Amino acid sequence: MIAARLTAQLLAGRPAGDPVAVAGRLLAVQGQDPRGARLAIRARTAGLSAADVDRALTEERSLVITWMNRGTLHLIRSEDYAWLQPAAKLPAPRLLGAYDPLLLGWSSREAILGSHKTIVTVNGLFRPFALVRARAVATWKLSAGEVVLEPFAPLSRDDATALRADASDVLRYLDASSPSAGAPPR
Question: Would you say the pTM of this structure is higher than 0.70?
Answer without folding.
Answer: yes
